[in-house]
Fold:
Amino acid sequence: MADEKPHYLGHRQRLRERFLKDFGSSLPDYELVELLLFMAQPRGDVKPLAKALIRRFGSFAELIAADPDEIRKVAGAKDSAVAALKVVQAAALRLSRTDLIGKPVLGSWRQLLDYCHAAMARQTREQFRVLYLDRKNALIADEVQATGTVDHTPVYPREVVKRALDLGASALILVHNHPSGDPTPSAGDIEMTVEIRDTAVRLGIALHDHVIIGRKGHVSFKSRGLL
Structure:
């Protein structure tokens, strides 16, 4: 009939009301995605896109951590959808980092690993970051130094140490990811770590650890006896 209304009218308000009852704990993943897509697409039915995204990536967590270019490959997922999804990841990482800033990270090691895993494990390119610590081993800065290819990131030890001096840091923790999923250190990883350690120690800066993050685990150089 000419005056028949679309089936999704009123759906957005009902979904918002259900969300507000328990803030999403009872909603399936695709409905959480729908709520985010409401911001990206003010009108129309976004449920098919939400379901397609969950089918493609498997879960809400995998979706928000996915590479933006991979998200765009799903039909209907435009830049506005990517932005709505990635802002959730950015907010989650910022909250986690805020909980770490100013705390002795060696005493919050599990929390630190969880943060690094969330930030890096699903990256499709290698990313090298440095955690700068003060004399009490409290985190004063967390900075991505370089982003490379699927299996290599250019790292310049002098730049890492120079930044530590600029920040007044007394110690470092190095972290990078292996997009292959296997966190086993390469010969190049070991050589680079030794070079940074030797450069730093001459200036009174300690290198506590180098952690390699994979999708399903991590490797600590200190635990492996590589430092």
About this structure: The two ends are 74 Å apart (CA to CA).
